[in-house]
Amino acid sequence: MPKRALITGVAGQDGSYLAELLLDKGYEVYGIVGPVLGELLDTAIEKGGDRLHLLDGDLSDMDSLLACVNMARPDEVYNLAAMSFVGDSWEQALRTTDINAVGVLRLLEALRQVAPEARFMQAASGEVFGKAHGAAQNESTPLHPRSPYGVSKAYAYFITLNYRESHGTFGSNAVLFNHESPRRGVNFVTRKITDGAARISLGLADSLPMGNLDSRRDWGFAGDYVDAMWRILQQDEPDDFVVATGEAHSVREFCEVAFGRVGLDYEKYVTVDERFLRPADVDVLLGDASKAREKLGWEPGVSFRELVEMMVDADLACLQAQA
User: Fold this and answer.
1) Distance between CA 285 and CA 132 in Å, rounded?
2) Mean pLDDT score of the chain, rounded to an integer?
């Protein structure tokens, strides 16, 4: 019998990559989707055939989660659904907390009631470290989130740990540092940059307003990171892992590489707009994934430059196809 996996947020960037990976490994995949499916699942739907099942569910609705778990009867559960845009979390703090924090509690409780033997992976975030001290953040770094998003993810991290220790749940946290791809939404800074560079190069825009160009992030490729998620749930015991590249690059560097890909000097087009500055920004997030490398045998496969150029090329192709 093939393994059965349940993925929340299956129609998002990470969910679509993970669905494809699990289908390639022979899994029966059940994916919880919201009201808008989008196009990111096209490849998974084509690849999965009758092994991909889409379910209607919502982390804010306990009854729907119970129904989804009961239908999937999963061996593995990957919680990737979230209000994931950090910038919006100040304006939507209550909604962010209900989905990202209490929603995880609802899902864990649904599993405890219906599928207590299932292995559970919570997609945590490097934003839980926020105002971190030290050169790089690892599994021992104290949490100090600096946004409602980061706070909600910190709760999810600890409630997963609590269910592991209190109820014997096989619950693991994947503390994922920033990971991007051509499937990233344009409301995220990375895709905003690559889409902007592509548009300017094609004469469709003449400038790109940005926020803090000096923020530094540890950016990796989402396709690499879902492989780490799968490896986490193949371990003999539940545990928590930082997933990161170990390199930090500034938003300015991201702009330089993106605009350089289309033969432009970013300084001529990128402007700083105070509307995009956050109330309490995080200066640097840098992950130390030594534990994942050692225990999971995981390594990131796509470099920073390769990632940026991949995203620019995809945005160029998309815009040219629309012309």
Assistant:
1) 8
2) 92
Asked about 76 being catalytic, the answer comes back as: no
pTM for this predicted structure:
0.93
Which amino acid is it at 182? Answer: P
13 sits in which H/E element: helix 13-24
Q: DSSP characters for 71-120?
A: HH--SEEEE------GGGGTTTHHHHHIIIIIHHHHHHHHHHHH-TT-EE
Q: Are 248 and 220 in contact (CB under 8 A)?
A: no
Cα angle value 271/277/283 (rounded, 5°): 100
> Which residue out of 16, 125, 147, 201 is catalytically annotated?
125
Catalytic residue among 27, 149, 163, 269: 149
Q: Is 127 a catalytic residue?
A: yes
pLDDT tens, residue by residue, 13-41: 999 999 999 999 999 999 999 765 667 88
Domains of the chain: 4-179+219-243 (3.40.50.720), 185-217+248-283+302-322 (3.90.25.10)
Q: Among 20, 28, 76, 127, which one carries the catalytic annotation?
A: 127
Q: What is the pLDDT of residues 164-204, one digit of tens each?
A: 999 999 999 999 999 999 999 998 999 999 999 999 999 99
Please tell me the number of Cα atoms within 13 Å of 51 on its side-chain side.
20
Catalytic site includes residue 207: no
